[in-house]
Amino acid sequence: xxxxxxxxxGWTLTLVGGEADDGQHLYAVMETASGEYAxxxxxxxxxxxxxxxNVKLISVNGFTSSFTKESVSQELNAIFxxxxxxxxxxxxxxx
Length: 95
Hints:
The chain is an alpha+beta fold.
């Protein structure tokens, strides 16, 4: 399922993911002169089972740092948050 929102300078497309191990296709189409639609592109969208990863920091060659568990956790979350999104409220509102 997708929602479009008109924004200044273009459109925003919001996609709602499926359950774990689900896949969807998003097509970009163009209407031809004959009134039919031609596919320009297809985007495969997959939803994977959430996974937790444990990270252990170890000293290398005697190097120690002032890194704390909280600061490392915040940085890793900031990095991985760019590639994943979970919004249970959107799904709940659609049901």
